[in-house]
Amino acid sequence: MNKELIVLGIESSCDDTSAAVLKGSKVLSNIIASQAIHKEYGGVVPELASRAHQQNIIPVIDTAIKNAKVKKSDIDIIAYTKGPGLLGSLLVGSSFAKSFSFSLNKPLVSVNHMKAHVLAHFIYEKDKNPPEFPFICLTVSGGHTQIVLVKSFTEMQIIGTTLDDAAGEAFDKSAKVLGLEYPGGPLIDKYSKSGNINAFTFGKPKIKDLDFSFSGLKTSIMNKINSSLMSNPNFIEENLNDLCASIQHSIIQILLDKVEKAIIKTKVNRIAIAGGVSANSYLRKQLQLLGQKLNFEVHIPKFEYCTDNAAMIAMAGAIKYEYGNNSYKDYSEQASARLSF
Length: 341
Known about the structure:
Elements: E1 6-11, E2 16-23, E3 26-34, H1 46-67, E4 77-83, H2 87-104, E5 108-112, H3 113-119, E6 135-140, E7 145-150, E8 156-161, H4 167-177, H5 185-192, H6 215-231, H7 235-266, E9 270-274, H8 281-294, E10 297-299, H9 310-323
Parallel strand pairs: 1-4, 4-5, 6-9, 9-10
Antiparallel strand pairs: 1-2, 2-3, 6-7, 7-8
Helix pairs in contact: 1-2, 3-9, 4-6, 4-7, 5-7, 6-7, 7-8
């Protein structure tokens, strides 16, 4: 990577407005403004998200540039999230990025959000080396669950994906049934620490190859809780920690079973995780234990680069710019809610 290239990254795919400045692969600033309003509704409301992005984007970018101690004229590249994500949210970030690029006459680089999660592993961290190619990346979030074979910066292949719901959605929907606030995944992680992973068992999907399915598990969890509440109205309150531990164990075990199969199938002995669910402490711990058991490398990103953030967008933008062959001034590119990998 060009160690002197200064990149401004802009991320607005869902409900976090983020801006970051990188110099080479080193983060100079990474600012994230979250939207608390969605807690009232138990999930992200797209229209409210896009309005909040409009309020947040200018102060967030201004703060990122000031904290990085650079001037606007110092910026070499502007990178932004093209998709996938919520269209209204994406439009706020992409529109600002285009305007900013035009006003400064700087290259504009569109970034695939899911690829950026993978490339977050190449952000500089002291005393930590990025994974060597090839490696397998388990990318898990509220909207996606994928196993990606990463052969190079520019060559990535999805070798496993969810056929229905994503792992993050299974966490959030289960949390909602338990009466926990949104986002529920971190709360399940918190309460599970003092629970018994074997207290409850749920239906396990039987999906061939490396693909996933979480809809059946989600239904099994909801049926178990609802039927138990009929006989005991205090069932959740009395068993919250055990329920959280058992639910979390079930979801993570599905992920790890597929990771193990992917390692055997590809004969690649380096595994990385990415996406919001990669912040889950149980997934991190169990993956490291599996790595010790099967003797493969495990690469876990810094917590702040797991959830949606602009540092990973800036990193992906820098890589795309360096390894691409375009002029990167295409203002006609459109944000895409369902951008393919």
